Amino acid sequence: AAPGPRSYTTLRDEAVKLFNSLQQLESERDPVPLMQGVLQTCLDLPPLVDEIYCQLVKQTTEPPAPGGQGDLHYWQLLTCMSCTFLPSPPVLRFLRFHLDRRSRFPGSEMAKYACFIREALRKTKGRECVPSLEEILVLMRRQEMICTVHCPGAPACSVAISSHTTAEEVARELVSRLGLSQSPNLFALYEQSRRREQPVRSAALLADVLTRFE
To answer: Within this chain, do residues 118 and 154 fall inside the same structural domain, yes or no?
Structure first.
């Protein structure tokens, strides 16, 4: 299930806990839950976003085993952070400088993550929810998610989405696929649960909707 409400102590104490989580991440065999926990804390306590970005830049600068499991876990968390939060302008400049340095080694996994993160930072505007476990897994591989949309009177459609894809963009693609571009009707996406059905805001990120369903 998606992370539920948490109780927190002081920002200083939570920063120490996050630092310990990052240390644990290096040797974690299944890093996804730990990554989601770090992201959730940052969502609940925005002042810690810059702290985690700075820690991740530090951990991915001259690591003891470049390209090793621990190094890649840090890059993968940095990828998830870049698709969820924007750092403050000074930290963003620092981060972009760090990414530019990694990009000087084309073909390496670190360079590929650096390019992906740089592109994500151009699109990220902030999230309502942290990435789902599925989204974290695809971000770790720098891939897109597949979203299934059920259309009245038509087969279900599978749509590839990123962390930045809005409901309006998916609706436009489906309208085009179904040959309804000339229709005078308006189209929207709806999310349905056992208790209710409601339209999805055009500007809503589909990744947030999927996290709520998780």
So the answer is: no
Tokens at residue 145, please?
Answer: 């998610």
Same domain as 136, residue 165: no
- In the chain, beta strands by DSSP E: 145-149, 157-161, 190-192, 197-199
Above 70 in pLDDT, residue 3? no
Residues 162 and 125 occupy one common structural domain: no
User: What pLDDT, on a 0 to 100 scale, did the predictor assign at position 2?
Assistant: 42
Is the CB of residue 167 less than 8 Å from the CB of residue 188?
yes
Cα dihedral 43, 85, 133, 31 sign: negative
Give the residue numbers spanning the domain of 93.
11-140
Burial 2-23 (b: 16+ CB within 10 A, else e): ebeeeeeeeeeebbebbeebbe
Q: Do residue 128 and residue 163 come from a single domain?
A: no
Percent of the chain with pLDDT over 90: 65
Q: Please tell me what DSSP assigns to residue 205.
A: B
Tokens of 158: 């599978």
Give the CA dihedral 209, 150, 196, 136, nearest 10 degrees.
-20
92: left (phi over 0), alpha (psi -120 to 50) or beta: alpha
Query: What CA–CA distance (Å, rounded) separates 121 from 118?
Result: 5
Residue 72 and residue 129 in one domain: yes
For the residues 95-121, what does the mean pLDDT come to?
A: 90
How many whole angstroms from its chain centre is CA 12?
25
Q: Looking at this protein, which amino acid is placed at residue 104?
A: R
pTM comes to 0.89
Strand partners, 161: 145
